[in-house]
Specification:
- With 236 residues, this protein is mainly alpha-helical.
- It contains nine helices and six strands, in the order βββαβββαααααααα.
- It has one domain.
- The strands form two sheets. The chain has a three-stranded antiparallel beta sheet, with helices on one face. The chain has a three-stranded mixed beta sheet with strand order 4-6-5.
- The two termini are 22 Å apart.
Length: 236
């Protein structure tokens, strides 16, 4: 949602009828049942998150199988509780290609209702369904190759060529990132709605967050574009 991370610590293993929290040691412990109502207007609890996951995760997996029948649609959703992490939600893949969605506890404190949690989760699931990670990797690789070629033609030394390669890879990786975010907003809105949540209410989280504007190499689009994308996706 805000960035893509790789390191994972506390895993929230999700099955169709059972949720367990798995600590760094790999030992699972049962969790309490979710509360029946969301705390509205204030920080959301872990119980709120669990309740949202129970509704959204099966819809996201079903949507994934419908749109990408050959993809791995077995989402694993977890809490990344490493100390000091900022508010964030992100999607990545494990070594076997299984889609992972991580939330930091600090994000719960910023969200005011389950609709916001549901939209964030649906948005991250949509990144996987849309195949954004391999597209970013391919674009980054192409950018790195171009940077290497330009550096070599310019007569740069080895260090200079490596710098040009890194710059090219960064530009390539970010070239389509704003479009990917809007694609994930659109599909995520539909997933959230199918899960019984209000994506128009959920996307209002962005109205309270810092607006990245429309700046070069920024990875996220302007907040107004995201809100309008959600409106169009659900006909609101």
């Amino acid at each position: 949602m805000r960035s893509v991370c790789i390191s994972l610590v506390a895993i929230l293993g999700l099955a169709a009828c059972d949720i367990q929290v798995e600590g760094p040691s790999g030992v699972s412990r049962p969790t309490e049942a979710p509360v029946s109502q969301s705390r509205t207007g204030g920080p959301q609890s872990l119980a709120d998150f669990r309740a949202v996951v129970r509704q959204v995760e099966p819809v996201a997996e079903r949507t994934c199988r419908e749109l990408r029948p050959r993809a791995n649609c077995d989402f694993r959703i977890f809490i990344d509780d490493r100390e000091g992490l900022p508010p964030n939600a992100y999607q990545t893949l494990d070594e076997n290609g299984r889609p992972l969605i991580g939330f930091t506890p600090a994000l719960f404190a910023e969200m005011r209702n389950r609709d916001e949690l549901a939209f964030a989760l649906s948005h991250e699931a949509a990144h996987h369904i849309e195949g954004h990670i391999p597209q970013i990797q391919n674009s980054a690789a192409a950018g790195a190759i171009l940077g290497t070629l330009i550096g070599s033609l310019a007569g740069l030394d080895q260090a200079g060529v490596e710098t040009a390669q890194n710059i090219g890879g960064t530009i390539g990786a970010r070239r389509y990132s704003k479009g990917f975010e809007l694609e994930a907003d659109s599909l995520g809105a539909r997933i959230a709605q199918r899960s019984g949540y209000d994506p128009l209410r959920g996307v209002l989280y962005f109205a309270r967050s810092a607006d990245p504007g429309d700046r070069f190499l920024r990875t996220h689009p302007p907040n107004a574009d995201r809100i309008n994308t959600v409106r169009r996706a659900i006909g609101g």
